[in-house]
Design brief:
Layout lengths: L1 E6 L11 H4 L4 H14 L3 E6 L3 H11 L5 E5 L8 H10 L3 E5 L21 E4 L4 H14 L6
Parallel strand pairs: 1-2, 1-3, 3-4, 4-5
The protein binds 1,3,4-trihydroxy-5-OXO-cyclohexanecarboxylic acid.
The site of 1,3,4-trihydroxy-5-OXO-cyclohexanecarboxylic acid has 10 residues, from loops.
Length: about 150
């Protein structure tokens, strides 16, 4: 089983950016956490981060035929990008949306998620743990576990 984990704009600045919202751990710590979460489950993982919408669309398209499931934190593009939504719909891979912060308790413009319309599940406000939950959910889903 192979997953693609996508992180969108400004997540590369974790640790520096708004630590009261996103925490003090840096992006490298997040990547290590995701790699370890997958390794523990025997899942192969590819990590992709970009600040560019089109690059994220390319990464989703490139997953087709190669990847079993996608975990995606589209960051600010969550709330704006029809292109990312369309790419997720096009490849038809099971995808899970993750946000480090609890977007439901933040500004009104963060209440809409385009990418989420193509996702089977979302984890918000759990910090790094949300990525692990997404990985576990996707694994269960792909294994056809009844209780997901
Ligand atoms: C975020 C929430 C988004 O609203 C924001 O633009 C981000 C990060 C999160 O992980 O909490 O960049 O996706």
């Amino acid at each position: 089983m192979k997953f693609l984990v996508i992180n969108g704009p400004n997540l590369n600045l974790l640790g520096l950016r708004e630590p009261d919202i996103y925490g003090r751990q840096d992006f490298r710590a997040l990547e290590d956490f995701i790699r370890e979460s997958c390794r523990a489950e025997g899942i192969e993982v590819e990590l992709f981060q970009s600040n560019h919408e089109g690059a994220i669309v390319d990464a989703i398209q490139g997953a087709y035929g190669r990847i079993d499931g996608i975990v995606i934190n589209p960051a600010a593009y969550t709330h704006t990008s029809v292109a990312i939504l369309d790419a997720l719909k096009a490849v038809q891979l099971p995808a899970v949306e993750v946000h480090i912060s609890d977007v439901s308790r933040r500004e009104s413009f963060r209440q809409i998620s385009y990418a989420g319309l193509a996702c089977i599940k979302r984890y918000i406000g759990l910090g790094f743990e949300g990525y692990r939950q997404a990985i576990l959910f996707l694994k269960d889903y792909l294994e056809g576990n009844e209780n997901v």
